């Protein structure tokens, strides 16, 4: 089987990560892969913020938890030491689609390098609020961006989950 197809079929969402740091070279490789995602009219109107600073990682986790309405001790990033935030230029009619493709590329790249990943939502609300805006300001990012998602990444804690059976009646031929 082709290695790309194998990665697509084997990748699972991980919800338990080891606290171990991920080498910078691996993070850079994952992020670079994300920049190759297709985009409407080749606009490349997405941004990726690689969050490895524990202070910012924990601030985003706390805000995500607040937005989600969970107990304040819950970590919606499941202990992942790396959070890759994808933002898309709101002026692009394909912003959500473009950002979603970036998220898929990030998760496949992480899997191909032996890391686990999980798409975590609520980035839209985070980056409309003060925490996300403060991060953008600190980074000097200007423009009108929508949070698409967080790619939580790191080493898998425990067994890698098996793929559930595929549902029937999802493919039609004409």
Structure description:
The chain has a 4-stranded antiparallel sheet with strand order 1-2-4-3. Helix 2 (about 25-35) runs antiparallel to helix 4. The chain has helices at about 5-10, 25-35, 55-70, 95-110, 125-130, 130-140, and strands spanning about 45-50, 80-90, 115-120, 145-155. The two termini are about 25 Å apart. Helices cover about 40% and strands about 15% of the residues. The chain has one domain: NADH Oxidase (3-Layer(aba) Sandwich), CATH 3.40.109.10. It has 6 helices and 4 strands. The chain is globular, with a radius of gyration of 16 Å.
Shape: globular
Strand-pairing-aware structural class: alpha+beta
Count every beta strand, where a strand is a DSSP E run of 2 or more residues: 4
Q: Which CATH class applies here? A: Alpha Beta
Strand content: 15-25%
Largest sheet: 4 strands, antiparallel
**Tally of separate domains:** 1
Give the helix proportion (percent range).
25-40%
Let me know the CATH homologous superfamily.
NADH Oxidase
Order of helices and strands: HHEHEHEHHE
Query: From the coordinates shown, what is the CATH architecture?
Result: 3-Layer(aba) Sandwich
Task: Tell me, rounded to a whole number, the average pLDDT.
Answer: 97
Separation, N- and C-terminal Cα atoms:
26 Å
Biggest sheet, strands in spatial order? 1-2-4-3
Give Rg in angstroms: 16 Å
Low-confidence stretches: none
Query: CATH topology, anyone?
Result: NADH Oxidase
Count of individual helical segments: 6
């Amino acid at each position: 089987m082709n290695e790309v197809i194998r990665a697509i079929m084997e990748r699972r969402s991980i919800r338990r990560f080891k606290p171990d740091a991920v080498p910078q070279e691996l993070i850079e490789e994952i992020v670079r892969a994300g920049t190759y995602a297709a985009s409407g009219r080749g606009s490349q109107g997405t941004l990726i913020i690689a969050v490895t600073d524990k202070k910012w990682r924990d601030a985003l986790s706390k805000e995500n938890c607040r937005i989600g309405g969970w107990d304040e001790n819950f970590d919606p990033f499941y202990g992942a030491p790396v959070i890759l935030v994808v933002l898309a230029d709101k002026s692009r009619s394909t912003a959500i689609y473009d950002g979603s493709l970036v998220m898929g590329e990030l998760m496949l790249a992480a899997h191909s390098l032996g890391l686990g990943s999980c798409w975590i939502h609520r980035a839209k609300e985070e980056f409309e609020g003060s925490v996300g805006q403060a991060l953008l300001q600190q980074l000097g990012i200007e423009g009108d961006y929508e949070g698409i998602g967080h790619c939580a990444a790191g080493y898998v804690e425990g067994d890698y989950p098996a793929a559930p059976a595929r549902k029937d009646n999802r493919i039609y031929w004409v």
